[in-house]
Amino acid sequence: MKSIPKLFLPLVVMALFSLSAFRCSAGKDNSIHRDTVKPGNLWSYDGTIQPGAASLEEYLPLLEGKRVCLLSNQTGLVVKKGKEIPQELLVSDGQDAMDKMPLNLYTHVLDTLLSMNVNVVCLMSPEHGFRGTADAGEHVSSSVDIRTGIPIRSLYGTKMSDKEMMEGFDVMLFDLQDVGVRFYTYYVTMIRMMGKCAKFNIPFIVLDRPNPIGFLTDGPMLDRKFKSGVGGLPIPVAHGMTMGELAYMANEKGWLNFPSKETWEPDNSLKCDLTVIKCRNYRRSSHYRLPVKPSPNLPNMRSVYLYPSTCYFEGTIMSLGRGTSVPFQIYGSPGMSTTSFQGKSPYGSDARVAAEYKFTPRSVAGAKNPPLLNRDCQGVNLTEIPINRINDGKVNLTYIIDAYIGTGSKGNEFFTRMFELETGQEYVRKTIIEKASNQGCNAGKLAKELQDSWQKDVKAFKKDRTPYLLYK
Q1: CATH number of the structural domain spanning residue 108
Q2: What are the tens digits of pLDDT across the range 291-324?
Q3: Do 81 and 165 belong to one domain?
Q4: Is the same domain home to 182 and 205?
Q5: What are the Cα distances from residue 266, in Å, to 66, 183, 231?
Q6: Is 98 part of a structural domain of the chain?
Q7: Edge-to-edge strand order for the sheet containing 354-359?
Q8: Phi/psi of residue 154, nearest 5 degrees
Q9: How confident is the model at residue 393 (pLDDT cuts 50, 70, 90)?
Q10: DSSP state letter for 454
Q11: Does residue 326 sit in the same domain as residue 446?
Q12: Cα–Cα distance measured from residue 218 to residue 77, given in angstroms and rounded to the nearest whole number
């Protein structure tokens, strides 16, 4: 299967000339100017896709007469009945801010449930909170939703016994937008809650949502010794599955205890009463545009597409753009050179990357204390890679290797413990240190060598997941 199908209608190409000039300021001397957008930079999204939350007729009967607990956040949106997403919003180069989407087209699943007189007695919130505004890893207290007055039980930062967490409701409804990578924490939240529902005999209903990078399955598998809140299942970095599919797989394979166990031995004694409400019109190759930021530092679709290849900077001494307007789309540090790229991207001269790019991370909402706060950085700007080319290289470690070379790093001084938690393996760091320290190392070639090293595991995983797939 091709990584990303290239499908651009002539009409779509014509639409680009109506796009206005773009300027994105992320700090000192780091503005990006675009007077025109090249045709190859456009991406066409499928506006007919509907998440499981839209299929009210399938799950409302399951909630009738029940006390419902909703586990969701700001991503639990559905296009309102009778509304359509305007065609101009379904054509993009990925740099359009998601918080500029017209949210009057959408309704939140909570509001829909309340309008249908469903007895929602409590809410649960994952990392970033129910409204999605907290920093990565920030403590989120249990509270009351200011819009509805319904109590919120925070699952991220509030210590609560299982009995306290699970009392007072009859069924759990789960509706969170995942972004398709192992180190994104929402699926770990789902697995843990499935385990608790199994323990307390509470039905668990997943309102499924499209995987925005469902076309991508790649990256190293997780070694159990690096299991954590940013990696809880033996799956590759980009797993290519929806939350509903992961729920089926985890439930059937006895994985509901995985986040707290030291081995991959299945625990088939723990299974939950699971129902998945499928998406409509979704295929694994679909291009699905998220209507709202899934978390504070994924502000546009370009950041989502680069995320599987740039998030590893969280495990280094570098900045990956937190505290700027383009997180996960740039990287750099004070004094970094870009000798590896030599002013070009790994995709060739047609995909120019600005070398010696300058930016300064600031304290902003969603990144109050970003790495290298208030320090002038220079590095690489990835915002002009054609969007249809970003995942050609699948999970691409070229950027990390380039940064290791460009900072003049030696050995482990470039990396932190988080690097293994996100790659899931020891050999990635070791290989980079061993080979990228050599003079004349080619970052792209070494990245391809590493990518080749995990293909056997990826192939085995694709076979293993087949019985649990809900979409072609």
Answers
A1: 3.40.50.12170
A2: 999 999 999 999 999 999 999 999 999 999 999 9
A3: yes
A4: yes
A5: 32, 21, 17
A6: yes
A7: 330-333, 377-381, 354-359
A8: -75, 135
A9: confident
A10: T
A11: yes
A12: 28
Contact 191, 261 (CB under 8 A): no
Domain that holds residue 373: 293-456
Q: What is the pLDDT of residue 38?
A: 46
Residues 347 and 418 in one domain: yes
Q: Flag whether pLDDT at 62 surpasses 50.
A: yes
For 37, the token pair is: 């957008």
Together in a domain, 126 and 257: yes
Domain boundary among 258, 290, 322: 290
* Cβ atoms of 73 and 125 closer than 8 Å: yes
Confidence of residue 129 (pLDDT cuts 50, 70, 90): low
Neighbour count for residue 416 (Cβ, 10 Å): 12
CATH of the domain at 355: 3.90.1150.140
278 and 353 fall within a common domain: no
| Alpha-carbon separation of residue 290 from 149, 265, 302 (angstroms) | 27, 36, 11
> Among the three residues 290, 311, 330, which one is the final residue of a domain in this structure?
290
- The reply to whether 247 and 332 lie within a common domain is no
Do residues 120 and 68 touch, judged by C-beta distance below 8 A? yes
One domain, residues 194 and 317: no
10 Å CB burial of residue 61 (0-12, 13-18, 19+) is exposed
What are 395-426's pLDDT values in tens digits? 999 999 989 998 888 899 999 999 999 999 99
Q: Could you give the CA distance from residue 435 to residue 36 in angstroms, rounded to a whole number?
A: 40
Strand extents, DSSP E, 245-389: 274-277, 330-333, 344-345, 348-352, 354-359, 377-381
The DSSP annotation for 37-76 comes to --GGG-EE--TT-B-GGG-HHHHHHHHTT--EEEEE-TT-
Is the pLDDT at 200 greater than 90? The verdict is: yes
Greater pLDDT, 8 or 160? 160
